[in-house]
Structures are given as C-alpha cells and as structure tokens.
Amino acid sequence: MLDRFKYNGTTFQGAARELREMFAAASKFYGEVAAILANKGTDWTFIPPNTPHCGGLWEAGVKSNKHHLKRVIGDHKLTFEELSTVLVEIEACLNSRPLYPLTNEVDDLTALTPA
Prior knowledge:
Layout: E1 4-7, H1 10-25, H2 27-40, E2 43-46, H3 57-73, H4 80-95, E3 100-101, E4 111-112
Parallel strand pairs: 1-2
Antiparallel strand pairs: 3-4
Helix pairs in contact: 1-2, 3-4
C-alpha cells in the first residue's frame, strides 16, 4: 500500500478533509481503519493547484489517454457502449507498450509492460 498520496484538485482535497472529519467524529466505528492508517504512516501530500506538470508519471498516462481519445473519437458523439469499447481498446494499447527490456540480450525482444 502506498504510504504517500499526491493529488491535485479540490475533489481529492475535499475527500481528505471528509476522511479526517469522519475519523475524528466516528472513531469508535472506524477505529480499526484509523489505526491501520496511523500505523502505516499514511500522509496526504498535495501538489499545487493547476500544476499538472508536478504529477509526473500519472499525468503522462492521462496525456496518452487523451491523445488516443482525440485521435479515435474526434468530434463524434458516442453512445455509452461505444465509449466503453474505445476506452477498453485504449487501455489495452497503453498497457501493452514496452517499458523496459527484460534482458540485455540483443536477440531477446521481450519487454516489461504495464500489463
């Protein structure tokens, strides 16, 4: 489990506030979860508002997804089923890209992928 979370946007900041309030108000109901989070040292760290370039790795994934969506969909309006299909195909494309070669052998073309 990740010990540090970095998120941008008021949605995540609001969720963090709600969690703090929930744990403070109802600690008897959520005492076990609060204890686990406290023992793990969970810490919410936020990047500055309107600075997606601070997001690094996950923002690169968002950029790739948006690029493929724009190329495939363009100005067309899709039904829910069509959009779901396109998103699954984009997911398959992004998860099959090579990240790093598994060996240093020139003839070995296998690579580590997100999938």
